[in-house]
Amino acid sequence: MIIQMSGVKFLVLCYLTCTGTLLNGEVFDSSRERMRPFCFIIGRNEVIRGWDEGVAQMSKGQRAKLICSPDFAYGKKGCDNVIPPNATLTFDVELIDVERDDSCRIFL
Q: Which residues form the PPIase FKBP-type domain (predicted)?
C-alpha cells in the first residue's frame, strides 16, 4: 500500500494480529498468543509475498484469511524447521491499524 500526495509517495506501516497455520491445522506462529501486534511496511520485502500483496488489499479493521501457496510463502526452502519445504500456509489476519511512514518518502 502506497499513499501518493502531490508528487510524493509515502509507504504505509501496517499493524496486524495474525495466526499462521499449516494445511494440517498446526499453528506455527501467532501474534495473538504473544499479545503483541506485528508490524511491517508494505512493499519493502520485510514479509512473505503473500502478506505484501494480501494485506495491501485490506482496509483498517478488516479481518481476512490469506492462503499462501509456496510461491507466495517460503518456497522450496521452508523456514527454520518450523515450515516445511513447499508448504501452503494459511493466515488469519486482522489489520488493526495503518499509518503513513514519513521516514519512507519517495519523491517523484
A: 19-99
